């Protein structure tokens, strides 16, 4: 599951858990983006903070791991590179890429989109406020999956912190503590 994870929240974790359960996945690898090129107009926190929050949030689940492949590659983050790197590291594994309805709706604008379908199977999960559709996408490579509705977004979490409002229970406790410790999202953003 790729994401900017700025910060990781319970919407991400529930989607990943549900997809893992429904598709009987042996492992969910969370892959924080290096430079999310389609968020170029958004201020994104340093990659190491996003990586460490993802580690904290996933640490208690034995099936959840975190990969640095997108952080350790220079330049804009493209999922085609992510999947090629993961395949090289795990040549015997079958890869599924978990994505929310909003990201799936943009997928035709992603780099090397035709190759993406050969690199992984895509699981598109429901997300409140977005229409989940496989229209225009190869139906044998994309599966839609309903997951419990979590009306949470990273941008709203950042705004809440910036406004002095709590993010307890929107993000894992350790992530709240991490945000407080490093005083993330306290400046005026976006
Ligand atoms: N509440 C949610 N329910 C289901 N999927 C989600 C949810 N939030 C994010 N996702 C999915 O998780 C992936 C990573 O999302 P991302 O890290 O950009 O979080 P975000 O909440 O969308 O961030 P932002 O608000 O900054 O755009 C994307 O595929 C996105 O569609
Ligand atoms: O490959 C691309 O061109 C591409 C364009 C936009 C987003 N993605 C990936 O989609 C995932 C979710 O992205 P985001 O921006 O919603 O956090 C993340 O893994 C990104 O690297 C990938």
From TrEMBL:
Give the UniProt keywords, A-Z: ATP-binding, NAD, Nucleotide-binding, Nucleotidyltransferase, Pyridine nucleotide biosynthesis, Transferase
Q: Name one GO molecular function term.
A: nicotinate-nucleotide adenylyltransferase activity
Pathway field of the UniProt record reads: Cofactor biosynthesis; NAD(+) biosynthesis; deamido-NAD(+) from nicotinate D-ribonucleotide: step 1/1
Q: Where are the transmembrane segments?
A: none
**Which is a Pfam family this sequence falls into?**
CTP_transf_like
Q: Which GO terms describe its biological process?
A: NAD+ biosynthetic process
Might you give the EC number(s) for this enzyme? 2.7.7.18
The highest taxon in the source lineage is Bacteria
Per the database record, which ranges form the Cytidyltransferase-like domain?
A: 1-160
- Describe the reaction catalysed, as an equation: nicotinate beta-D-ribonucleotide + ATP + H(+) = deamido-NAD(+) + diphosphate
Describe the task this protein carries out. Answer: Catalyzes the reversible adenylation of nicotinate mononucleotide (NaMN) to nicotinic acid adenine dinucleotide (NaAD).
Family from the record: Belongs to the NadD family.
Any idea what this protein is called?
A: Probable nicotinate-nucleotide adenylyltransferase
Q: Which organism is it from?
A: Janibacter cremeus
Q: Which gene encodes it?
A: nadD
């Amino acid at each position: 599951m790729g994401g900017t994870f700025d910060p990781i929240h319970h919407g991400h974790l529930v989607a990943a858990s549900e997809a893992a359960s429904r598709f009987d996945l042996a492992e969910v690898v969370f892959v924080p983006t290096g430079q999310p090129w389609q968020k170029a107009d958004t201020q994104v926190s340093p990659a190491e903070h996003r990586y460490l929050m993802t580690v904290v949030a996933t640490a208690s689940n034995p099936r959840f791991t975190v990969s640095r492949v997108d952080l350790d590659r220079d330049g804009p983050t493209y999922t085609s590179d992510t999947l090629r790197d993961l395949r090289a590291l795990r040549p015997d594994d079958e890869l599924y890429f978990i994505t929310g309805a909003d990201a799936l709706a943009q997928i035709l604008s992603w780099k090397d989109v035709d190759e993406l379908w050969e690199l992984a199977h895509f699981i598109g999960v429901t997300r409140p406020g977005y229409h989940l559709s496989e229209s225009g996408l190869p139906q044998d490579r994309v599966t839609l999956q309903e997951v419990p509705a979590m009306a949470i977004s990273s941008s709203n979490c950042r705004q809440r912190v910036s406004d002095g409002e709590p993010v307890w229970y929107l993000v894992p406790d350790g992530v709240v503590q991490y945000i407080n410790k490093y005083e993330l999202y306290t400046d005026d953003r976006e």
